[in-house]
Amino acid sequence: MKKPNVQKYALLSVFDKQGIVPFAKQLQKLGYGIISTGGTAKTLTENGIAVVPIQDITGNPESFDGRMKTISFQIESGILYDRTNPSHVQQAKALAVPTIDVVVCNLYPFEQVTSGSVSIEIAVENIDVGGPTMVRSAAKNFKNVLVVVDPKDYISLSEALNENEVPFDLRKKLAGKAFAHLSFYDSQIARFLSPDGFPQEITLPGRKRIDLRYGENPHQKGAVYLEPNTNSPLLHMERLWGRELSLVNITDINAGLESVRLFQEPAAAVIKHNSPCGLAVGSTAKEALERAIDADPESAFGGVIILNTPFDGEAAQVIGTFKDETRGNMDIVAAPSFSSEALELLRKLRKSMGIYSFGPIPQQRSQPYNLKWIDGGFIVQTHDDNLEAEFQNWLVVTEKKPTPLELQQMQVAWKFISRIRSNAIIIVDSELPMTRGIGSGQTSRVRSTKIALEQAGPFCKGAILASDSFFPFDDSVTLAALHGISAIVQQGGSINDKASIEAANKAGISMVFTNSRAFWH
């Protein structure tokens, strides 16, 4: 087995070949012999770079359809031995182990292959074994070996190598990045192979999507990470104009997305501090937006607007009218897309207003689970998206039956309230699919009821009241009757249901039990 007469080697084995040719040429100029495999070796050779085939180092041919090619005593020893340990150096010489000082490797495209429907056989064939072994070895021995998993690092590393001394901090940073890359990769495989449900151990892969302007407050830093292969609209979010996002901005956009994604017809949400202050549905984007703002114009000031349908010129004029009539501004406007007319109008309204597009909202999520963060960890749960299927379980419990319009408004109200902070009580207009009053985030359901009724004011008469859980007493029903509420939709299931039903019957209110709860925290 004949090897070139060089003192040091760089091992290059990459699936993503972006930038690998100029980087390999730079390594060659610096005196590194280039060891390479398969497709990488072919690319380098075609570009005039002399390559030592990996089998010349291992002494074994690539075997088993490429499953075995890099894993060997010679390769792993050449990466792992400690150059500062005289015993290790002596053993390396005695065993003719090559000194591999640079490992450049990125892995089989498991993420891309499993982005759609794929058989278990194809997925398994794209689980990289040799690559992670080399990367892990190099990252462990980072004080002696440079490990590169990201083509974006080629330039900075080339500059450091030209200085003949790679700083310890850079070596350590690259090693940390390598272990993160392995964890990211392995977590996807674990998720793919794990049965549905809640495994004993779980890891969460995330890739940075956005560096935030700041976190929850200006003195906090923050960034947005998204899972691989997610179909979240946030993956495609693009700033078209105005301010960069803070944590509150992005969570407000997310809260709005959660509200409007429940509807096929045009829907609009006005969000403040992750909570809707106005929700509405319409036949057009303009109509939905007008209703959402009109639901609570005072709270809408400085809010975040989300639509589930393209933002056109007429919708943009609604924001212009709101500014003209109330001197009210919006902080963020986000929608699947914006017409050129809408974009031009919105840019003129406020220089700092952020305008963001995020593409179509998928009907089905790519990930079945929802996370809630707690100190030191997180809770995993299924999404609460299948609300329409629950409508068949609804039960009319009062003498008075809801009219077809009231029942339709109740269903809209139940979708609305499922995305409003608990304890939640909302008032939905008697005819229009829009909120008129929202009492949310209160520790007392009666207090939420009072807030919602007070905000709705004259619109209470003939309106729908929705509660995201049951009434433990009849007090909220009595309050609703005093304000002229015509129909109530609530969970039911309290030991005092009878008292609430009697209060509704006495007031001539129709009441429906959903037999399901709609908490949102």
* Total number of domains: 3
Instruction: Specify the CATH architecture of the largest domain.
Output: 3-Layer(aba) Sandwich
Kindly state the mean pLDDT as a whole number?
94
CATH class of the largest domain: Alpha Beta
Kindly estimate the percentage of residues that lie in beta strands according to DSSP. 15-25%
Question: How would you describe the overall organization of this protein?
Answer:
The chain has 521 residues and is an alpha/beta fold. The protein has three domains: 9-193, 3-Layer(aba) Sandwich (Rossmann fold); 235-357, AICAR transformylase, duplication domain (Cytidine Deaminase, domain 2, 3-Layer(aba) Sandwich); 391-513, Cytidine Deaminase, domain 2 (3-Layer(aba) Sandwich). 38% of the residues lie in helices and 18% in strands. The protein has 20 helices and 21 strands. The chain has a six-stranded mixed sheet with strand order 8-13-12-11-9-10, with helices on both faces. A six-stranded mixed sheet has the order 16-21-20-19-17-18, sandwiched between helices. Helix 2 (38-46) links the parallel strand 2 (33-36) and strand 3 (52-53). The model has no long low-confidence stretch (mean pLDDT 94).
